[in-house]
Write a structure and sequence with these properties.
The protein is of the alpha+beta class and 891 residues long. The protein is built from 13 helices and 50 strands. The strands form nine sheets. Strands 1, 2, 3, 4, 5, 6, 7, 8, 9, 10 and 11 form an eleven-stranded mixed β-sheet that branches. The chain has an eight-stranded mixed β-sheet with strand order 12-14-17-16-15-18-19-13. The protein is globular.
């Protein structure tokens, strides 16, 4: 199954899609964008291996020696006699022997009632079911067609398997979204986001900007191609190559089991199938594909072309699973630090890695396997659920006395016929706990409002309910959430409470009693402690309590409105901003008087204020960025970017005071102020050039650690602690390590380099210059291409797919043999090798990013398909600063 995902990535290119679409517009314009919405015949299939039988829905792959029982569910009123042929193939260059074709006349007993049973022969690689209307010589005609062009049929079967897998992800998403109320905005967003993560899909975030009643419809529009919006008046090529509709199509190819792709693997497979089958039709037969979805022992088949019972008659081709070694999924927890509680009913263990876990029935009989203190086993059923984004496990009836304070369960089950062992999960077990309140929250409960309280203990995951009990009053439930593995955050409702003692009751799953935490609540009327104003500042700082009740202030005929409210050292701090900035900046040192504050309840409070000396202020004269010591292949084109392993030197000019004091400091911080460092003269990170000019030196990695990235800001700090305004300093970026770029040899008559997403379609080449048709071309030597030309993101190597042929030649050119050395087919992309490639946001072959790929979030690979560079230069946008285009000199 994973192998089939890789096939998609190895072939994906917009250039191929463009050429194929042009070809279809002439020959099969009615079918190339038709949805698979015609119900075809259902077929029951069972597979037996080593004495064990499974329904087809649970079989990801076949193996030599498997017994396959096939029975078509044709109605009793079937008027056309269908011949069922099961055929096995062994690759593109080795036609199957005649004995690998098995015939069943479905209208005759015993086939009508029992179907046909065949054995997978040794060396077989693909298997197909053909349903052909009865004609004279039908089996011979079909067998000769397959044996004459085995490569075409092999490619069709590979693409149908791929398309079925990709379509199963989309169908799973749509089926789940249709169960969500169209008026529940929160449920729509939560469910769609979880499904997208489980199924490796990228949803259209713009849908959430629409009215609630339209969001679900927006997210589920177009059942054929959820990722690509197929408007009735837009061409297929435009839909695949332009605008936001290309984003999800690209993302469908970016899965842990796929490689980089320029368009949806599902769309690409359908294009290829339509093109190949169109080239196979004869006067007697034409071949039409069936897109299969499996449920239990039934293959439900959908057609996109109505069958014809006149010459050329339609032969339905249905792909069985590939014949190969079963590829087990690579699953991992969503959060390695996730805490779970064994006694919680329907615990959900977030797990990702292979969307087939959720979209198919390949995985079955999953359990979490435990061993208790005595070493005795315990298995709990585990059920994948894409809507919840993980495995559902119910341990509420487990005898937890068999375990200690925790238990570890490992995922076991079956993937097809093969046993599977997955990741392990640690569970907490409920027990009486002593919850603690952090010092900052011990006086945080204030009556008259709902306050946030944090409680700490190792059993956070096992909390089932929290209530607040007020002496002499009611006991009310309180909302809570697990904020950390060892902490819960409780919203304590005290709007109608009186100051005094109270209890917080914490109940855990499986326990009959609650843990009680005794606390005090306090009355806190609005109290204004101080107002700080500085000469030249348009804002002032108010300190006190209950400052959330302040609605505005007035001082010296200037009105101030509330800004940012924060709490520090048990005290509220409120920034008030002048509505007339120029008037406030005109205040001089020593200006004093009383400021009047309006409260939301209508009261007016007063507070004396005196304008203090101006805060320190500096300006930036110049800045210089030092590149890392190691030679870097990525050149930063914007001086505003600072490499994490490099350095930054900037010079400052003092505005206030007139000269720099020896105690001057410069504080540098991230945008959210979560990371800070201070530069000073004492540690030589500041050096005075003269009395008014200063040179500052910053090493981002040394000052902030290896996780520093994003915008930096700085401000001056006076000796008394007074700070100036924050000013932008630059953006710290982390650089990936690029070890090389390998590109396949460009054939002499190859198609143009594939145009990545968002690129305009290339113009149609002049017919006189078209390459010879694929059948007339010389096969490409394996040595002519690089090993990783199309599967840069795949986790394990797999056989590469056949190269897509070039545009067909005009009729007058088809008789001409290809010139020596000509290699028809699209020019494949290049492969970039390195580490920390997730630090790249996108990469292109041109500065305008018309030929580009987007690197998905969470990408962990060490190779990446990239457009072929021009003049050994690629253009890179870094994830830490995606607005800037940098250059990468190809090593």
């Amino acid at each position: 199954m994973i192998h089939r995902y890789r096939i998609a990535a190895a072939r994906a290119s917009l250039c191929a899609a463009f050429c194929l679409a042009l070809c279809f517009s002439v020959a099969t314009a009615s079918a190339d964008n038709a949805p698979f919405d015609l119900k075809g015949p259902d077929i029951d299939v069972h597979v037996t291996r080593s004495g064990k039988s499974l329904p087809i829905a649970q079989v990801p792959s076949l193996q030599a020696g498997d017994r396959i029982r096939i029975h078509p569910n044709l109605p009793d009123t079937q008027s056309v006699h269908y011949l069922l042929v099961v055929a096995f193939m062994r690759g593109v260059t080795n036609p199957p022997p005649p004995t690998w074709f098995f015939k069943a006349e479905t209208w005759k007993p015993p086939f009508r009632d029992e179907g046909i049973e065949v054995t997978v022969p040794a060396e077989a690689q693909q298997a197909a079911i053909f349903l052909a209307p009865e004609t004279s010589g039908d089996i011979k005609t079909l067998r000769n067609a397959v044996r004459g062009r085995p490569g075409s049929f092999v490619r069709v079967l590979q693409d149908l398997n791929l398309a079925s897998l990709e379509r199963s992800r989309i169908d799973t998403y749509l089926a789940a979204m249709h169960q969500v109320s169209p008026t529940d905005e929160a449920a729509i967003k939560e469910t769609s986001t979880t499904l997208a993560r489980s199924l490796s899909l990228k949803i259209n975030q713009d849908c959430f900007l629409r009215p609630t009643a339209e969001q679900a419809q927006c997210l589920t529009t177009n059942t054929d191609n959820m990722a690509v919006d197929t408007g009735q008046n837009a061409s297929v090529v435009a839909q695949l190559t332009t605008g936001a509709t290309s984003d999800l199509a690209t993302q469908l190819a970016y899965t842990p089991n796929a490689g980089a792709g320029y368009y949806s693997a599902y769309v690409g497979a359908i294009f290829d199938v339509a093109r190949i089958l169109d080239s196979l039709h004869t006067a007697q037969y034409q071949y039409i594909p069936a897109l299969s979805s499996t449920e239990g022992d039934t293959m439900h088949n959908k057609l996109n072309v109505p069958p014809s019972f006149h010459n050329p008659k339609s032969v339905i081709i249905i792909s069985l699973p590939p014949i190969e070694k079963t590829q087990l999924p690579m699953l991992s927890p969503v959060n390695l630090k996730q805490a779970a509680c064994l006694q919680k009913p329907q615990t959900v263990l977030g797990i990702v890695g292979d969307p087939a876990l959720y979209s198919t029935q390949y995985g079955h009989d999953f359990v979490l396997h435990f061993k208790d203190k005595q070493g005795k086993p315990l298995d709990l059923p585990a059920t994948p659920d894409a809507t919840l984004g993980g495995l559902k496990v119910d341990g509420s009836k487990v005898d937890t006395t068999r375990f200690g304070l925790s238990a570890t369960g490992s995922l076991k089950g079956m993937w097809g016929f093969e046993p599977y062992e997955g990741p392990s999960f640690t569970f907490d077990i409920s027990h009486a706990s002593t919850w603690k309140t952090p010092p900052a929250d011990q006086t945080a409960l204030v009556v008259g409002r709902t306050d946030t309280l944090h409680l700490e203990d190792d059993e956070a995951a096992c909390v089932s309910e929290v209530a607040v009990k007020i002496p002499g009053g009611a006991t009310n439930k309180a909302d809570f959430k697990v904020s950390k593995p060892t902490e819960i955050e409780v919203q304590v409702p005290l709007k109608d409470a009186k100051p005094g003692s109270l209890s917080v009751l914490v109940k855990e799953y499986g326990l009959s009693t609650s843990d009680e935490v005794s606390l005090n609540s306090y009355a806190e009327a609005g109290h204004l402690d101080s107002l700080t104003a500085y000469a030249g500042d348009p804002q002032v700082l108010l300190k006190g309590t209950r400052l959330d009740e302040v609605s505005g202030a007035d001082f010296q005929s200037v009105h101030f409105t509330p800004g940012k409210l924060s709490r520090e050292g048990g005290q509220d701090q409120l920034t008030l901003v002048a509505t007339n900035a120029a008037a406030a900046q005109a205040f001089t040192v020593g200006t004093n008087g009383k400021a009047k504050f309006a409260l939301k309840d209508g009261r007016i409070l007063e507070l004396p204020v005196e304008v203090s000396a101006a805060r320190p202020r500096v300006t930036t004269l110049s800045r210089d960025v030092q590149a890392p010591a190691a030679d870097a292949t990525i050149h930063l084109t914007d001086q505003g970017e600072v490499p994490q392993d490099g350095g930054l030197t900037f010079s400052l000019k003092t505005v206030i005071p007139a000269i720099f004091p020896r105690t001057e400091k410069i504080e540098v911080a991230t945008e959210d102020e979560s990371l800070k460092t201070t530069l000073s003269l004492s540690d030589s990170s500041l050096v005075l050039e003269d009395a008014t000019t200063m040179l500052a030196t910053l090493d981002p990695r040394k000052s902030f650690g290896p996780s520093i990235f994003g915008p930096l800001q700085y401000r001056p700090v006076a000796n008394d602690g007074t700070t100036g305004d924050w000013q932008p300093l630059g953006t710290v970026v982390r650089l990936p390590v690029v070890s090389g770029v390998s590109c396949p040899r460009v054939p002499r008559h190859a198609d143009p380099v594939p145009a990545p997403q968002n690129a305009a379609p290339a113009p149609q080449a002049d017919p006189a210059s078209q390459a010879s048709p694929p059948d007339a071309a010389k096969p490409e030597s394996p040595s002519d291409t690089t090993q990783s030309s199309g599967a840069a993101l795949q986790s394990r190597p797999g056989p590469a797919p056949s190269a897509a042929p070039a545009n067909p030649a005009p009729a007058d050119a088809q008789a001409q043999p290809p010139a020596a050395g000509d290699q028809p087919g699209p020019s494949p992309a290049c492969t970039l090798h390195g580490s920390n490639l997730f630090l790249i946001d996108s990469i292109a072959s041109d500065a305008a990013f018309t030929h580009s790929i987007q690197v998905p979030e969470g990408f962990a690979g060490q190779t990446l398909n990239v457009p072929r560079p021009a003049a050994k230069t690629l253009y890179v946008k870094l994830r830490d600063d995606p607005d800037v285009v940098n250059t990468l000199q190809v090593p």
